[in-house]
Amino acid sequence: MPMTTSTAKTSRWPRPAVLAVLGALLLWGGWAPHPTAVLVPLLFIGWVPYLLMERQLTLQGARKRRVFAHTYLFLVLWNALTTWWVSYADLPAGIAAVVLNALLMCLPLMAFRQTKKRLGNRLGYLSLPVFWIAFEQLHLHWDITWPWLTLGNGFAAAPQWVQWYEYTGFLGGSVWVWAVNLLFFSWLIKNYELKIKNETRTTAVGSNNSLAVRPSFLIFNSQFLIPLLAIAGPIALSYLIGTVYQEKGAPAEVVVVQPNLDPYVEKFEGGAKFVPYDEQLTRLLALSERQLTPQTRLILWPETALEESYWENTIESNAKIQRVRQWLGQHPGVTLLTGITTLGSYPNKEAASETVRYRDDLGYYDVFNTGAYFASTAAPVAFYHKSRLVPGVEKVPPVLAAIVSHIDLGGTVGSVGSQPRRTVYPAPANAPTLRLAPVICYESIYGDFVGEYVRNGATLLGLITNDAWWHDSPGYRQLLSYGQLRCIETRRDLARSANTGFTGFINQKGEITQREPAWTPTASRATVHLNEEITFYVRFGELIGRGAQILAVLILVVAVFSARFRKG
To answer: Which residues contact 145 (CB under 8 A, 6 or more apart)?
Structure first.
């Protein structure tokens, strides 16, 4: 029985489930972290199996449920393979990060299918990157934000390829990924259809007819060159930019400290091998002392280095804070940024924030994951409250807040407090251009968010983090590499202090210049450069993301009205 046209076009491709698995494996394989950029090119073909799968299901007339099931299989496998390590810190949050994020990722892909159905293949495929990048932009700002798998972050393992992020930001990388994948997909389909056409002609005319014998990939050379150029062009531009660019700004010596306290057994009270807080402070001071020189201007201690909860309005009377003050007094001219857990009180519920908590003995109060800055012995401690919070761990979406507030989990329930503005600490007198941006852990995966510090005057990014929550997994390695992209986007040096994980320095070209080994108490010293210039990306923000959202709305409007006109 002869094959139908749709059967002929789909029968030789792998089954949809196989394509879904293949696509997930390719995207996972191309994702950071890798010691080299060898596997990063897999990102340029990682979406091709999905495109083939979607086309195959469309030609077979598959029901929506079947299309959704295969799409979700592809996305949930990619999420699970790449971000499984989140479950180390919080098992429910880890499961949600995989299951729910994959579900949300289905939204732009379903919008693409409906657009293709209503407006045809050409506009349909052009709409796909628009919908996806519009979704990525949304995922940077709403309450359930989890942009870890933003496609442009995939080039964190190859910062030398994306020096042009100073103009586009990481969403420019998302555009690049989609453009190349669509070009490879187009080449593959055109050549495959030509092959089918030639084979059909050979069957009809007869294998002895010399006119019927044609190469299966007649247009291989010319068509295949287009996606290769789409890869090579931006890379060449990036190397040109990187070669020309020179570190800018006045020098300043900075020390970063890694105390290496296991958060599961040593760091917090109640752990099996809990290290008393006084001893933790002693370790921080001793490690700092080893690297101090007369030229040192700044020391960084990691996220929650001082873990006991400190009331902000009485913090100066705390014995440990007084001990820090005394030590700094012995080293005039040195400033300190440390992670700390603080509490802020409110006189009544009306004056409180939306994340307020209440206890009979404490009243209304907020808990903050804080960066505390000690500028001098005379100046009061300056606070910055972490504001990009990990969903499900530090931030409970409003839709769930009312539910969890009535559940006794035997511990802390509710969201951590935050602040609307990015604080930049003023420069000390002995380093007039050292204006520090206190970036806390998860915040470093947000390009425009970090750019806001620079718009507010920051000349140095100071990242404090506690990567040990994720054990020895890809998580802390990915976070390190994402910091390299933030340096390119802002053209700022980054000093990184981790409880453990990786402590060190990254320069303005996203190159790791120093990196201390993980899982050992240590400290590191380097001279950073305090650039005061503003990049195009920092000045204008996510132009690509906002533009994609506008286009996505216009495309959806056109698709909806075109369907209504046809019915009319």
So the answer is: 139, 388, 391
Report strand pairing: 335-346 vs 357-359.
Answer: unpaired
**CA–CA dist 126, 113 (Å, integer):** 11
Q: Are strands 460-465 and 436-440 parallel, antiparallel or unpaired?
A: parallel
**Separation between Cα atoms, residue 526 and residue 506, nearest integer Å:** 10
Cα-Cα-Cα-Cα torsion 483, 486, 133, 82, nearest 10 degrees, comes to -10
Burial of 29 (0-12, 13-18, 19+ CB in 10 A): middle
CB neighbour list of residue 393: distance below 8 Å, 6 or more residues apart? 89, 90, 93
Tell me which DSSP letter residue 371 carries. Answer: E
DSSP one-letter string for 157-216: G-GGG-TTHHHH-HHHHHHHHHHHHHHHHHHHHHHHHHHHHHHHHHHHH-TT-GGG---T
Write the single-letter amino acid at 239. Answer: Y
Q: Which residues contact 205 (CB under 8 A, 6 or more apart)?
A: 211, 212
In this structure, the strands spanning 494-498 and 460-465 are parallel
Strands 512-515 and 504-506, sheet pairing: antiparallel
Dihedral, CA of residue 193, residue 195, residue 201 and residue 207, to nearest 10: -170
Side-chain half-sphere CA neighbours of 436 within 13 A: 31
Residue 532 DSSP label: -
Q: Cα–Cα distance between 166 and 172 in angstroms, integer? A: 10
pLDDT tens for 426-463 read: 999 899 999 999 999 999 999 999 999 999 999 999 99
Name the token pair of 291. 């690297």
Give pTM, 2 decimals: 0.91
For 346, the 3-state DSSP assignment is: strand
Strand, coil or helix: what is 525? strand
Residue 31: partners with Cβ closer than 8 Å, 6 or more residues away:
43, 82, 149, 154, 157, 478
Contact status, residue 529 vs residue 431, Cβ threshold 8 Å: no
Structure tokens at 473: 């997994």
Residue 505's φ and ψ, nearest 5 degrees, are -140, 145
Using the 8-state DSSP alphabet, how is residue 459 labeled?
Answer: S
- DSSP string for 296-322: EEEEE--TTSEEEEEEGGGGGGSHHHH
DSSP 461-516: EEEEE-GGGG-SSHHHHHHHHHHHHHHHHHT--EEEEESSS--EEE-TTS-EEEEP
Residue type, 527: T
Mean pLDDT rounded to a whole number for the chain: 89
Q: Which two tokens stand for residue 380?
A: 């009061």
DSSP run (H or E) holding 367: strand 363-374
Cis peptide leading into 398, omega within 30 of 0? no
Per-residue pLDDT of 287-340, as tens digits, reads: 999 999 999 999 999 999 998 789 999 999 999 999 999 999 999 999 999 999
Cβ atoms of 184 and 42 closer than 8 Å: no
H runs (alpha helix) in 47-145: 48-59, 64-83, 91-119, 121-139
Q: Is the CB of residue 363 less than 8 Å from the CB of residue 311?
A: no
167-220 pLDDT per residue, tens: 999 999 999 999 999 999 999 998 877 676 666 666 655 555 444 444 444 455
220-244 and 170-205 are packed helices; what angle lies between their axes, rounded to 10 degrees?
A: 170
Cβ atoms of residues 505 and 528 within 8 Å: yes
